[in-house]
Amino acid sequence: QVRLVESGGGLVQAGGSLRLSCSASGFISSINVMGWYRQAPGKQRELVATLSTGGSTTYIDSVKGRFTISRDNAKNTVILQMNSLKPEDTANYYCNFRELRVGGMSYWGKGTLVTVSS
Questions:
Q1: Residue 29: pLDDT above 90?
Q2: Contact 112/9 with Cβ under 8 angstroms?
Q3: Mind spelling out the 3-state secondary structure of the chain?
């Protein structure tokens, strides 16, 4: 079992920045992907950015050039630096941990709210 604890959400004006952090604890598979997803009211949850232990990254097109994902493998922590925030970035942001192995499990944090005012 893996437990994920998120922090860093809040209210910010358009153009501002926020930093989300997620720490994983428990039985941590050495080969994994950690990342962030978001869900706005009335919309489906979507991938924002992911980063594997091997260094492979994925970003949704709408955040490329504005958001940066990083991780500390020794601390099992993933960071999402969000710059130039837009009102359309408003959503609940969820941390995800996924084991990269056959039958690997996927775990979710409880979410942290990001609100960007115009």
A1: no
A2: yes
A3: CEEEEEECCEEEECCCCEEEEEEEEECCCCCEEEEEEEECCCCCCEEEEEEECCCCEEECHHHCCCEEEEEECCCCEEEEEECCCCHHHCEEEEEEEEECCCCCCEEECCCEEEEEEC
Rounded to whole angstroms, the Cα distance separating 56 from 33 reads 9
55-77 pLDDT per residue, tens:
999 999 999 999 999 999 889 99
Is the distance from CB of 90 to CB of 81 less than 8 angstroms? no
Closest CA to 33 of 86, 96, 117: 96
